[in-house]
Amino acid sequence: MHPIFFSIGPLTIRWYGVMAAIGFLLAALFLNLNRKRAGMNENQASALLFIAIISGVAGSRIFYVIQNWAQFRGDLWEIFRIDHGGLVFYGGFFLAICALAIYCRNTKLDIIRVLDVFSPALAIGHAMGRIGCFLNGCCYGKVTYSWIGVHYPEGSAPALKYSGAPLHPVQLYESFGNILLAAFLLCVLRRARRGITLGAYITLYGIMRFIDEFFRGDHSYDQLWLGGLTPAQTIGLLLIPAGIFTLIYFLRRHDDEKNKTDDQQSQ
Q1: Which letter does DSSP use for residue 151 in this model?
Q2: CA 32 → CA 48, 75, 121, 199, distances in Å?
Q3: What rounded mean pLDDT belongs to the chain?
Q4: Cα three-residue angle 232-236-242, rounded to 5 degrees
């Protein structure tokens, strides 16, 4: 854990913000490399990325504040200090999809193809964000006495909660998983048809997040849902069948279109 990148007088730059910026740049690179697959020009790609970032951060923060309202009740200004950490991915994910859908409808872009292109960009951006979480000391893991356990500085939230015991670097688990996911989705995007990349992302991220949450240690008992599952774990569990349904729907649609084309050619 090392939250401060550098400080000069009153100016303090935190690693969380630095990694978020790196994630933004990598996501922009991925998006621009593949924008033509969704029929986007440079201006549309830039506008969509800006909309996704703003709505994503806003949704992530809103969801986090709702979940942890007691933490902010006495200091409302802290709600706006996202540089201190405190973003819930799913809140940003769902709000960003809504915002992108509105933009695509107004510009007559195919939202499914746009989300196909966004999927690997989102995964790589998320990977960098999780490294920021690790350096910031948030979203930490449970106790482990294996060789992979990490110690947090005395006085930090994870050290206080677990009395300085070594913890799973769960943020790095998810970061590594997202990097692999981004690489896989890039391959799928270049080979598969419409909707398949999106379905693969929803399914695989849901599985990854569901498993990853078993190693998280920053949740309190009053935040658990459905007999002990975390909110993110519960949503991840719902995403898995949603992603499988998306894959089946678009695979069948492609097969139907192919059969229809073959029938027309044979007549």
Answers
A1: P
A2: 11, 40, 9, 21
A3: 87
A4: 145
